[in-house]
């Protein structure tokens, strides 16, 4: 490995890759629990997992004897969920084990990161043992008892409004559907759909597990599995350059093809200037040139380059720059590029081409007037009211007495340049 005089090696330690817990090690993250909060460790009374879809449920006991516990509220929640006489119900149908709210459920969702790029490291006797992570899960409280209470309320209302059925047989219309040949693209989209994931979730059975406190003897024995049991003494002489060596460890930095709203300002500043302008305009929708220079930290020498970049993704309206409609709602006129239907956009889900033309009409009106009328624009563009309201809210402010006024004041300084 190359030696950097400015960053000398201060210590070398052996590194081992432990495989005792391969495909069994998960990292639980609790985004709603504060690290600084000094709370007692929760008492887990039940735990279960679906390993294929990486789904976890934890039942946390609620200390009903605590002086901070509202017993009357807990009993009301239990009645709404399990009824007045829960002992008359089958045991599996009751959410709570007693006549009061005595537990809360925590469920997991997979984190939007690739777990294969991470490992759990344990330093022991000046040796670093790395353990590959199989999954990273976000664990948050779930409120199934509220859903159950709503269903019970709906059932009781249906019983009150149901009329006795007539004995006459009435003809029932039956719709016959024929399945079409599924393309690879439609199959991939179907497998990402909510319905498919719900079906896959229902097909896998829960596996009950036993939860051990982190200070218990069982947990200490399991933690020993993090140590490599048979260290390989083979010395790997690294001769790669530093950049190639890091890429072989963690992989190259992925090309930031993420949605603009998912990028932080720090990530945006590492992009080319044209991409910086595009990502920023997609997020803010409308901005003045002086504010754009300030946010992107552009000097006077590079303002001309910034002006060229902003003209490709935005329109000049009342001295300010507004992102183009085709940037927000991209579509292609070439149908050969798509094997299926175009992705629907907007609040109600309409064709991006229609929404682009409607927004262009709105932008044209703002080039003529400071204030526009939403109802008139909705009738002219023939798009749903919710979509028109969303378009206007991005670039204008509603004032009850006059209508929708352009969000930023007229920029005389930029226009007079």
Automatic annotation (TrEMBL):
Region Disordered, residue ranges: 152-172
Coiled-coil region(s): none
Biased composition, class Acidic residues, residue ranges: 162-171
GO biological process, one term: tRNA transcription by RNA polymerase III
GO CC terms: RNA polymerase III complex
InterPro entries reported for this sequence: RNA_pol_III_Rpc5
Highest taxon above the source species: Eukaryota
Pfam families according to UniProt: RPC5
Biased composition (Basic and acidic residues): 152-161
Record-given protein name: EOG090X07NA
Organism of origin: Evadne anonyx
């Amino acid at each position: 490995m190359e030696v950097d005089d400015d960053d000398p090696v201060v210590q070398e330690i052996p590194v081992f890759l432990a495989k005792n817990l391969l495909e069994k090690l998960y990292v639980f993250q609790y985004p709603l629990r504060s690290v600084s909060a000094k709370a007692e460790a929760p008492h887990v009374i039940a735990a279960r997992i679906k390993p294929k879809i990486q789904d976890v449920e934890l039942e946390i006991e609620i200390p009903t004897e605590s002086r901070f516990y509202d017993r009357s509220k807990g009993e009301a929640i239990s009645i709404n969920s399990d009824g007045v006489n829960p002992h008359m119900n089958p045991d599996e149908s009751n959410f709570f084990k007693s006549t009061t709210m005595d537990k809360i459920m925590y469920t997991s969702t997979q984190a939007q990161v690739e777990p294969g790029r991470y490992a759990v490291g344990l330093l022991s006797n000046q040796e670093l043992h790395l353990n590959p992570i199989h999954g990273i899960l976000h664990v948050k409280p779930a409120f199934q008892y509220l859903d159950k209470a709503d269903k019970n309320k709906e059932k009781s209302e249906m019983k009150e409004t149901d009329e006795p059925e007539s004995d006459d047989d009435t003809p029932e219309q039956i719709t016959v559907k024929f399945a079409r040949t599924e393309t690879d693209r439609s199959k991939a989209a179907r497998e990402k759909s909510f319905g498919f994931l719900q079906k896959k979730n229902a097909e896998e059975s829960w596996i009950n597990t036993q939860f051990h406190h982190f200070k218990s003897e069982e947990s200490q024995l399991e933690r020993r599995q993090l140590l490599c049991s048979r260290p390989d003494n083979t010395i790997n002489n690294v001769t790669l350059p530093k950049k190639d060596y890091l890429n072989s460890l963690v992989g190259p930095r992925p090309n930031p093809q993420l949605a603009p709203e998912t990028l932080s300002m720090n990530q945006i500043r590492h992009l080319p200037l044209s991409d910086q302008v595009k990502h920023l305009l997609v997020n803010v929708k409308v901005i003045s040139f002086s504010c754009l220079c300030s946010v992107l930290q552009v000097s006077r020498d590079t303002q001309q380059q910034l002006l060229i970049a902003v003209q490709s993704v935005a329109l000049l309206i009342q001295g300010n720059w507004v992102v183009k409609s085709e940037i927000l709602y991209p579509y292609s006129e070439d149908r050969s590029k798509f094997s299926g239907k175009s992705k629907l956009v907007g609040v109600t889900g309409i064709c991006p081409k229609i929404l682009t033309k409607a927004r262009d009409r709105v932008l044209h009106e703002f080039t003529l007037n400071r204030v526009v009328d939403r109802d008139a624009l909705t009738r002219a563009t023939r798009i749903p009211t919710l979509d028109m309201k969303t378009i206007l809210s991005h670039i204008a402010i509603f004032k009850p007495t006059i209508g929708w006024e352009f969000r930023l004041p007229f920029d005389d300084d930029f226009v007079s340049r």
